[in-house]
Amino acid sequence: MAGVPGLGALEGLLPSGEIVQQMFTYQILGQIITGALAPLVQELSNLVWPLDPDVPLAAADLADMVMRAHIDLAAAQAMAKQTGISPENLQLLIDNVGMPPAPQQLAEAYHRGFIGLNGSGPLVTSLEQGIRESRTADKWISVIKDLMLQVIPPGQAVQAWVRGQISPAEAQKILLDNGFDAASAQIMFDTTGNPPSPTQLIELYRRGFIPMKGTGPGVVSVQQGIYEGDAKDKWEPLYEKLSDYVPPPRTVTALERAGSVTVAEAQKYYQDSGLSPALAAQYSENATSGKVAKAKELAESVVLNLYETQQIDQAQADTFLADLGYSTVEAHYIESVYELKREQTLLNGAVTRIGTLFVSRKIDQATATEALQSLGLAAPAITYHVHLWSLEQANTTRLLTESQIADSFKYGILSQDDAITELTALGYTPYDAWVVLSVTMHGAQPNPPAKGPAPSGNIT
Question: pTM of the predicted model, to two decimals?
Fold first, then answer.
């Protein structure tokens, strides 16, 4: 050792025994010589290997290539034998290469029924085998199985809490599983769910169910309802103004007509309802005109009656009707109607007079027909009137009165039998008729009829 450069310092560290020391010395010398000859050996290798490149692939690489279908199993087994690896051992390497799906994918495959939960072995596809084939230690298999159970998402958990589907404690437990503490869970609860609409909030305020002001998670007010809604908070004061009720335009018109509101107040209400100033003025004009509607109707009737009876001319009627709000075209139309009414009244009077003369037999049918023609009646109308009058004339035959019959007997115009017949036609019995004639003659007449009801056939 002393003769070897650099090894003298190791002499005290070597174990005792000459053979052991020689072996140790040779090992060190061999490494030194190998290191010293490494460049020469590498240069020699560089010259020889290109001439005969026949170094077999490593078994691990062969297993990976078979798994990836780069070479077939038989070729890989032949190469593995050159490195001293048997086909059985190569198969073990093949079974050990490749990564399984990620745990999340394994869990989804299990939930969808593609793989089982338990089972192990190189040919088994299960959640347990997938975890074993990963780089995850086996002790975590049970934990990963437990993680397969999905936790309700925070948003859905809060929704279920708000809607009374789960208790606050259950909701907070689920939110804690999602990483939210109790304070955060309460904030999520307070900010979940929609308040009533602004219109409903205002209606609740008007009916005295909630106040206008007040804020906070547990407060129910118009202000808090606006804050909890989708509208920006800057609109809340304006929403408050909408709580002032504005009556609809027709109601305002009725109030204005009744004098309950002034014209200025009515105009404000109209415009608050969205009417333009011009349209609001028209509504007020309608309300004002409604106050004098009956008077205007009376005035119109008076004007038209005066025009119909020709106490005023058309120009005057036009002026009066214009004051009542009618246009010239409308006034002339109404006036023409009353002109027709006037003519109809005159025509009806003339026709009635002709009819009276005909029915009373003062004129005959020919004269009546001619008179109607002179009035301009159409032939169907003339035929109708004459026919009607003829029927009326036939049913208006006058009978002699009691005194006329009695006087006719007294003066010898009628015989006693004829006079009794005429009286019985007026409703007397034959005996009562004989009495009437006897009274007229101041003495009983001969051949008195039997007393009592008239015999059958005597009254005609």
Answer: 0.37
